[in-house]
Design goal:
Blueprint lengths: L4 E3 L9 H11 L4 E5 L4 H8 L3 E4 L5 H8 L4 E4 L7 H15 L4 E5 L16 H15 L4 E6 L10 H10 L1 E4 L5 E2 L4 H13 L8 E4 L5 E2 H12 L4 E4 L2 H9 L6 H15 L9 H6 L6 H7 L7 H7 L1
């Protein structure tokens, strides 16, 4: 390949799918242009991989047109944002104006698979992803939709879980008996990188990505226990106190707060009981389990006493 692959959202924090896509493509010696919002140490780290880095705003058509110049493959991803739909429409308009795109890989959310014109969720982000897919489908661009389920890096399974596990070895979430199959961001990035590296067979398809098993929260807690070599217990807590105390304590933007609140309610309604094997089908290896992910990030779940001793 001579033309660079444009990766947007390359400096994102939660999950960092864009950053990992850049790293995986560069590991294949493929040319990459990484679009970041700001010049900072994350941009420097991307340059260290050999990627070209440009700064721009996904809601400014001029910035997108400049970034896409000379590129024929595009990964479109953006952090949870109230302006997500606006950014998607602008990217689609710029790509249509170019007229020579080989593939646009759009990261969406698996909840979109359950949504219709008359059946939506209360999450403003879910609705924006659903609308974004409509726009991209209408655009007649060579689109691939990648729909992951909840990420293991999501605050529900990382920040909030780490806080309660460190405090008293409990996993405190209002999920009831609902089952879930969270996925590691690196597995999502691996699927995206495979598609961008060789897109022809994937154009027009939708891939739904989950972890290797769907299980209730007691089973999830058992995976945390195996990974951390100590007993972790799931505690089903009432939704409203959890939302107003535990979730609100993260000081999230209101758009993100409402999104995570809805995700918690959908888990309790068993709407995250999902299982596919698309990760393995595309990458040739099974998706990362909860146990493997937690073991890889064991330092985040250290007991409070142990943290004080090591500080």
């Amino acid at each position: 390949m001579v033309d660079p692959i444009l990766v947007t959202g390359a400096a994102g924090r939660v999950g960092a799918v864009g950053r990992m896509v850049v790293e995986l493509l560069r590991a294949r010696a493929l040319p990459v242009r990484a679009l970041v919002h700001h010049e900072d140490e994350r941009a420097d780290a991307l340059r260290a991989t050999g990627a070209e880095v440009v700064a721009g705003d996904l809601t400014r058509a001029g910035d997108i047109a400049r970034a896409l110049q000379g590129c024929r493959r595009l990964y479109f991803g953006m952090s949870v944002s109230a302006r997500y739909l606006e950014a998607t429409v602008i990217a689609a308009a710029v790509a249509r104006d170019r007229g020579d795109l080989e593939v646009l890989v759009n990261i969406s959310q698996m909840t979109v698979s359950e949504m219709t014109l008359t059946h939506q969720t209360d999450s403003p982000q879910h609705r924006q992803h659903w609308l974004a897919e409509q726009v991209l489908d209408w655009s007649a661009l060579p689109v691939v939709h990648v729909r992951p389920t909840v990420f293991l890096e999501n605050p529900l399974f990382l920040d909030l879980a780490a806080a309660s596990i460190a405090r008293d070895s409990t996993l405190r979430l209002p999920f009831g008996a609902g089952r879930t199959s969270p996925i590691a961001a690196r597995d999502v990035a691996a699927v995206v990188a495979e598609i961008l590296a060789s897109p022809a067979a994937h154009v027009g398809k939708v891939y739904e990505l989950t972890g290797p098993r769907s299980e209730d929260m007691n089973a999830v807690a058992a995976e945390y226990s195996d990974a951390l070599h100590r007993s972790i217990t799931y505690v089903d807590v009432p939704f409203e106190p959890w939302r107003d105390e535990d979730l609100r304590r993260l000081s999230l933007p209101e758009h993100v707060f409402e999104h995570l609140s809805t995700m918690a309610r959908l888990h309790a309604a068993n709407r995250y009981d999902r299982l596919t094997h698309d990760v393995e089908a595309i990458t040739g290896r099974p998706a990362t389990s909860v146990r493997e992910f937690v073991a890889r990030h064991a330092d985040r779940f250290a007991e409070e006493g142990g943290r004080r001793k090591g500080s």
